Every structure is written in structure tokens, then in C-alpha cells.
């Protein structure tokens, strides 16, 4: 699939997901049952999140992205590491709650939260390992560009 086609589809899907989220929120407002209302609102939030993701894909494919500095990367790594640890605790908590309750309504809610926590945990690990480091221009990269990758190895060209 061509880049322009992906950009167009991402744009369309961002609009569609946002519309879907709005429709679900309106439906949730009509529901008096707290668990059903919460579940529908949760799905609406996921659709809103998907809209944001599709918009990010379109942005990513539309222009060159700014590189992260080493300082920004360290701040991101520290924040992500903290949230990875928090998500791990939440994964364990929700697993335990889903297993220990006999009420099918509570089991449904805790299981739904557990699945989301597992996804969040995996996504944070992927961000930590794959994306942030690829988008960083380090001092080492700079010196490699000047010395290692240059035919003049840092001396005036010619």
C-alpha cells in the first residue's frame, strides 16, 4: 500500500473513530446501569484513543518528525519506566480481582480492565525499546556523521 493511500485511510479512520466515540458517549448518557454505562464509556474512550492514533499515523507520514535530544529521551525513559512498573502492579491487581470474585458483573469489569492493562504494559515496553530510541539523535550520532561517515573524517573537505 502506498504512503499517500495510508495517509488518506488514516485520516478517514480518525474521523470515523471520533464520530463513533461521540455516538457511544450519547448512548452511555441514556444508560442508568452503572456498569453498562462505564463499559460503553470505556469503549468510547478507546475509539477516541484510536482516532488520536490514526491522526498520529497521518502526521508521521506527512512530514519529517523532530528528533529527540538525549535529555528528552532520558526523561521519556524515566517516565515510561515508572509507568511500566505501575502497569505491572495493575495487571496483577486486576488479575487477582477477576479470579477471586464470583459475581459475573465484577468479573467482566475486572477482566476488561485487566486486558487493557496488559495492552498498556506491552505498549509501554514497545515504546521504551523501539520508538523512542529510533527517534533520538545522540551526540555519538553527530560525531559519527562528522568523523566516521565523512570522507574527510572531520578535516576540511577537498
Molecular structure report:
This protein is an all-alpha fold. It folds into 2 domains: 1-65; 68-158. 82% of the residues lie in helices and 0% in strands. The protein is built from 5 helices and no strands. The protein has helices at 3-30, 34-62, 70-100, 104-134, 139-148. The protein is flat. The relative contact order is 0.09.
Q: How much of the polypeptide forms β-strand, as a percent range?
A: under 5%
Approximate helicity band: over 70%
Number of strands: 0
What is the residue-averaged pLDDT?
88
Secondary-structure blueprint:
Elements: H1 3-30, H2 34-62, H3 70-100, H4 104-134, H5 139-148
Task: Describe the structure using short key phrases.
2 domains; mainly alpha; 158 residues
Compact description:
The chain has 158 residues and is mainly alpha-helical. The protein is 82% helix and 0% strand.
